[in-house]
Write a structure and sequence with these properties.
heterodimer; A: mainly alpha; Helix Hairpins; 3 helices; B: mainly alpha; Four Helix Bundle (Hemerythrin (Met), subunit A); 7 helices; globular
Chain lengths: 102, 177
């Protein structure tokens, strides 16, 4: 049923990663930046699953399992940090958080 | 030529990701993110990784994005309206087109993925548990044998994250501005 070549999956993963990277660079809302980071992670897992399927090994898929686990933990901690930041500063815009630069 | 379902879900994923990056409204961004993650999950299904597809929808598009939406609505952050500063927009466009062009070049013309491989469709699925199989059982077998230590570390990491989040979100009056 599946007749999509490896290159197509890698292309999708690469473009998704580039979109996420662009978002991280351009956006100023920390929450949106964080979501773009997650998108880059998802793109990487897509490439891993594609390689795993085409090389007929299970290891890449298991690594994706761990990536999803770690990402879930990471999101929880990251969002708690953002909430703590918002409590202190009253903003989550990265261009307003310049204490270290000034 | 990739099959129709792949093209459909790839377009859905990329469109939703574009919505995530471009939308002014953080809630709209989150909706785009959910759609993009569902698209990635659909691609997992197309790659015969059914278990991972289900996991992606449950954990990512479900739990993680609910957490995101909850925080977005809790903090109620609105972006100032108006155009992006031109510097930012130029940087974003330059980075996007440069990297997107290099990605297309890498996977289509550079020969890094040789044409024999690039045109090949995946081999038929075997039933050998040591190879790629669709059953969730294969994950269990690997997780509790070859990847036992990483599994335990991942479990410990979840515990650490749990404790860390509780201690981070405790309201400490000394830290208030």
């Amino acid at each position: 049923m599946e007749n999509t070549a490896l290159a197509h999956h890698l292309l999708l993963a690469g473009l998704l990663f580039v979109l996420g990277l662009t978002g991280v660079l351009v956006r100023r809302n920390l929450l949106v930046v964080y979501m773009c980071l997650e998108l880059m992670l998802a793109a990487a897992t897509l490439a891993l699953v594609a390689f795993s399927r085409f090389n007929r090994t299970m290891d890449g898929a298991v690594l994706v399992f761990f990536v999803i686990t770690v990402a879930a933990a990471e999101v929880a901690v990251g969002l708690a940090l953002i909430v703590a930041l918002f409590r202190q500063r009253g903003t989550v815009r990265s261009d307003a958080l310049t204490t270290l630069r000034d | 030529m990739p099959d129709g379902l792949f093209i459909f879900f790839a377009a859905l994923t990329l469109g939703a990701a574009l919505l995530l990056v471009l939308s002014r409204n953080a809630v709209t961004s989150a909706m785009g993110m959910i759609l993009a993650l569902v698209g990635v999950a659909a691609d997992f299904f197309l790659l015969d990784a059914y278990f991972l597809g289900v996991l992606q929808v449950l954990v990512y598009a479900g739990a993680v994005m609910v957490l995101f939406l909850f925080i977005i609505m809790l903090l109620d952050t609105e972006d100032p309206q108006g155009a992006y500063p031109w510097k930012t927009a130029a940087l974003g466009l330059a980075v996007f087109f440069l990297l997107a062009a290099s990605v297309v070049w890498l996977f289509h013309w550079s020969g890094a993925v040789s044409t024999a491989q690039a045109g090949a469709t995946p081999a038929e699925l075997s039933t050998n548990p040591a190879e790629f199989v669709t059953a969730a059982k294969a994950f269990g077998r690997l997780l509790y044998s070859k990847y036992l230590l990483p599994l335990e570390i991942a479990g410990f990491l979840l515990l650490v994250a749990l404790v860390g989040v509780v201690s981070l979100s405790k309201d400490n009056p000394e830290n208030r501005a």
